[in-house]
Amino acid sequence: MKTLNASGVGKAIDRVEGRLKVTGMAKYASEFPIPNKVYGQGINSSIAKGEIIDIDASEAEKLEGVLKIITHKNAEKLQNFEQELGPKRPDTIAPVLQDNKVHYYGQYVGFVVATTLEIAQHAVRLVKYQYREDKDPAIHFDEQRAQAYKPNDSSDYSRGNMEQGLAEADAVVEETYWTPIEHHHPMELHAVIASWENGKVTAYASQQMIDANVTGIANTFQIPKENVRIVAAFVGGGFGSKLNIERHVIMAIMASKMLGRPVQATVTRHQMFTNTGMRQKNEQKMRVGAKKDGTLTALSHETLSHTSTTQEYQESCGFVSKMLYKVANNSIKHRLMPMNLQTPFAMRAPGEATGSFALECAMDEMAHKLNMDPIDFRILNDTQTDLSENRPFSSRLLVECLRIGAKKFGWEKRKQQPGTQREGNWLIGYGVSAASRKAPYQKTSAKVIIEILDGKPHATVRMDATDIGTGSYTIIAQTASEYLQIPAERITVEIGDSDFPKTPGSGGSWGAASYCNGVRAACINAISQLKGESTNAVGGDMDLGALLTQKNLTKYEAIGTAEPSEEFKKHSVFSFGANFTEVWVDKDTGMYRIKRMVNVGAAGTILNPKTAFGQIIGGLTMGAGMVLAEQSKVEPNFGNFITRSFADYHVPVNLDMANIEVVFLPEDDKIANEMGIKGIGELGITSVAASIANAIFNATGKRMRDLPITPEKLIEASVSNVHQ
Ligand code: MOS
Fold first, then answer.
1. Is a pLDDT exceeding 80 seen at residue 542?
2. Nearest-5° angle of CA 166, CA 172, CA 176?
3. Taking the C-alpha atoms of 273, 278, 279 and 283 in order, what is their torsion angle to the nearest 10 degrees?
4. pTM here?
5. How confident is the model at residue 449 (pLDDT cuts 50, 70, 90)?
6. Is 239 in the pocket of ligand 1 (CB under 6 A)?
7. Cα 563 to Cα 507, 516, 568, 574, distances in angstroms
8. For residue 678, what is the enclosing H or E element?
9. What kind and span of H or E run contains 427?
């Protein structure tokens, strides 16, 4: 997009909220100085399955400062699930403390409210629970296989004939890949300060999707949506865990209703393993068939995952395998097993992050079997049509990402034969993976208020959008700057409040496209209304101040709404990319280093290269985390998570991610939306795990199919016998 404006679309301006962040002025949910607030702390069950038979709160109640202890015995009756294993969504109700049943270790079984956080936490330890414990909880993945079921009609997909495709193949790869339970762990803990006043709820809450979350709260308490207000001005990361209302929010509201005071509930890091969602363990079985010349003939992707015993969540790992390559015979299946663990939920590019690991490793295995370069193999099987939907991609620069990335990375230096590039004790390997992620766009409204302040035009933009650290404030300001033709410093962005016009919130990589097109619509409406034009003309000479003065106005408000076009619906809209990794593996210890990465993305209009770079770096770090370290472990006898903090749950640090180049290809896609924006919030993560695992194979000849790839696993693995 062309702009003459120094702070308009496409300019690498600094974050408009940066100063607030670094000076501590940006308020996160638990930081609002709400007068008279008290502190609630959830009590977690200490069994994985069973019933509460007795609760003795007498000692806790005696503690000075304890105001209320809520358990299933005195909790308010809430809306309960209509069906067993109903789907978990961002707007789903969140009943809590409704009966004496325990479904997983760590489930909330009570909530203590006290005058200070310390007293509340102390009191939690004094409440005594007696359980009738079921000694055989479903906590072992392998033991639940017989319980696997097909969650819904869209869990399976097929085209052509898989068996015929395999019969036509000259080579077949049939392998299984595993990803462990992982947790989102945004830096900002989940938190809420909730007040119930005259039947109305106000919640300062760390949430990603305000309007859906208003629905969740309203439906849980069976009150109208108008009676719920959520404020989420700044959110310190979410990664999917804050897409929905979790139960600390509901308990805080319930307590506020009982006490007549605002109640704050901050989930501890330890509780974030059991009470705020997770990515479940996935077992992905791949079958790939190809001709000698590299033509794919068959591709099947079967995923086995677990959900909880009360609610259903399916991560669609296989969906990437139905659209990424040209293959006539294709079969996708997803199966779920109910387990006594909390309900999993969308985490960091759900589907693609894990699914691409399996698919892109299997593609590498096949390329190797055919003695083909893995980039050539992918390019040979590229498609401009989404065969699963029988419609074209709005734009797809995957081949360009692979080619340009290969050049920047120096792919030509890669040795096809594994284990043949060495430097002293180090085995050096290169790996590649394709990246893809749906770029959805949803109906979004924004309000723009234009006024003259200090003799100059100024604009305020309002919408219920959220900024989860991604840069929403900045790109919203840039969009208003672009279409109002005033500098970003004269634009105030007010988001994160359900009183403002509705947006789909931040999730699924739809935030940027939705927010900015909504803001654009509002700005264009304002200007065309001021100009008295019936058509929504963009551009031309315009002086906002003069426009107001001409009309004798000091202030003007307009609302705009943007939504997907008919053309959008006729296309598959995805962002694409490729990641290239060089690893060095110590041949004796199995310790390895990511030496460098080159990531190329094609995601339409890049609104701000600086914030976009940050998003991709974040995605790459999460992807590297999947391979290097991230895993949550369930204690095999009791079903609790033995990973309880960042001391046990490891994430990459700066040194792991030291040398990264990020490139965006120019792409103009007006089918995606008016501004040509395709999301990048999740694109980065989708290609990392496979590119590292493939690089490790290239370095060592070892196929590592079970994440994370720890040095112990690597040293114990044998060299794969398939290489020629
Ligand atoms: Mo995302 S996993 O939709 O925050």
1. no
2. 110
3. 60
4. 0.97
5. very high
6. yes
7. 16, 11, 10, 17
8. none
9. strand 426-438
- Beta strands per DSSP E along 120-217: 128-133, 157-159, 171-179, 191-197, 200-205
Question: How many Å lie between the centroid of ligand 1 and the Cα of residue 169?
Answer: 37
Only one residue has tokens 């325990």, namely 102
Task: Phi first, then psi: give them for residue 155, nearest 5 degrees.
Answer: -70, -25
Cα of 634 vs centre of ligand 1, distance in Å, is: 24
Contacts of 164 (CB under 8 A, 6+ apart): 298, 329
Atom of ligand 1 nearest to the CA of 468: 4
Task: Tell whether ligand 1 has an atom less than 6 A from the beta carbon of residue 438.
Answer: no
Query: What is the position in ligand 1's atom list of the atom closest to the CA of 506?
Result: 4
Told to judge if 674 belongs to the known catalytic residues of this protein, a careful annotator would answer: no
- Probe residue for ligand 1, chosen from 682, 683, 685 as the CB with the greatest number of ligand atoms within 8 Å: 682
Q: What is the DSSP letter of 387?
A: T
C-alpha 509 – ligand 1 centre gap (Å): 7
In the reported structure, the alpha carbon of residue 682 is separated from the centroid of ligand 1 by a whole-number distance in angstroms of 8
- pLDDT above 70 as % of the chain: 98
Q: Give residue 267's identity as a one-letter amino acid code.
A: V
Q: What is the pLDDT of residue 721?
A: 54
pLDDT tens-digit map of 120-164: 999 999 999 999 999 999 999 999 999 999 999 999 999 999 999
Distance of alpha carbon 323 from alpha carbon 307, whole angstroms: 25
**Which of 682, 684, 706, 679 minimizes the C-alpha distance to 693?**
706
Instruction: Summarize pLDDT for 103-114 with one digit per residue, the tens.
Output: 999 999 999 999
- Within 8 A by CB and 6+ apart from 105, the residues are 44, 45, 46, 47, 48, 274, 340, 341, 638, 639, 640, 641
CB of residue 440 inside a 6 A radius of ligand 1: no
| Cα–Cα distance measured from residue 192 to residue 40, given in angstroms and rounded to the nearest whole number | 10
Residue with tokens 């760590």: 106
Q: Is the CB of 685 under 6 A from ligand 1?
A: no
- Give the nearest ligand 1 atom to 242 CA: 4
CA of 608 to the centre of ligand 1 (A): 21
The torsion of the CA quartet 160, 164, 170, 172, rounded to 10 degrees, works out to 80
The reply to whether ligand 1 has any atom less than 6 angstroms from the CB of 347 is yes
End-to-end Cα spacing for the chain = 49
Cβ(348) – ligand 1 distance below 6 Å:
yes
Q: How far apart are CA 602 and CA 666, in angstroms?
A: 7
Q: How many residues does the chain have?
A: 724
- Which of 182, 360, 630, 682 is flagged as catalytic? 682
What ranges in 485-599 are assigned the alpha helix state H? 511-531, 544-550, 566-569
| Protein residue with its CA nearest to atom 4 in ligand 1 | 240
Any idea of the CA torsion for 290, 292, 294, 295, to the nearest 10 degrees? -60
Q: Please report which confidence band the pLDDT of residue 534 belongs to, taking 50, 70 and 90 as the band edges.
A: low
CB atoms within 10 A of CB 70: 24
Contact 208, 507 (CB under 8 A): yes
Which atom of ligand 1 is closest in space to residue 241's alpha carbon? 4
Q: Report pLDDT for 539.
A: 54
| Candidate of 243, 442, 686 to mutate for ligand 1, largest count of ligand atoms within 8 Å of Cβ | 243
Burial class for 4, CB neighbours closer than 10 Å (0-12, 13-18, 19+) = exposed
Neighbours of 51 (CB within 10 A): 14
